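Bumping with the actual sequence this time:
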Amino acid sequence: MAYYLEAILLGILQGIAEFLPISSDGHLTVFGKILGDLLGTGGSMNPEENRRLLLMVIVLHIGSLATLIVVFWKDLLGLLKKPKLVGWILLTTVITAIIAIPFKKQLESMFDSPTIAAIGWLITAAFLWFAERMKNNTLKLEDLGWKQSVVVGIFQAIAPVPGISRSGTTITAGLLTGLDRESAARFSFLIAMPAIAGAAVLEIVKPLVEIFLKGTPAAEAFPGTDLSVAGLAPLVVGAIVSFLVGLVALKWLIQFIVKRGMNWFIIYLVVMATLTLLWQAIAVTVTVPV
């Protein structure tokens, strides 16, 4: 029951935080540690537990991917008539992959560090602060070019770091290159689909290929993961919760950004980062022998 409760709570966090510029990975890192301690599901964050949380993060992101597909299905169908926009989306994705994939192991190891998440939140707050000062942007999605695609792709490459918001950094990058707020937000969510799908392929599909084509034992392909029905069921529940909560959060976000900007998110990130750093400082003080 503890694993189901953990999956539901983290699914709610993912559904909200993925589409707000506050970093879902940062929230899953911090609250995954807190819930692990409170619920007894693995707060020690040993390598195997880190792997289990990482798989949970990927599965919850798949729920967010389903949300994006449902909300933007008209935009996706419209892409069939916009091959140029598809090309810019692919260019952005390739730029991100070239920069981020070589650092995959280092990025995964960061998921056991609330301190890194807190620092990432402060970096995201700085991005949003700059974004708020971008005024009178007039470019629309149809005006998108290689410049916007490359810049956004570079910014997106640092988003796997816990605490650094993918939507926050890519929206900021879009604004910096002249896109108006709504277009920057829409492009951010369009490029999220291949980014999330690519991460899922690397973390889930690749091990499945090793199991079925190479004969690798499941325990080796998915270390630290309970592959029984009882072990996988909480992941499915978490993905469903992430999907349903995300439907509400995503529709609200674009309207909020266009009408009110990002100042409230900046305040929230600074407060969360400060509380997390204080928590980690106290934890270190308590554990250090006198």
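The tokens above came from a reply further down the thread. The chain has one domain: 2-287.
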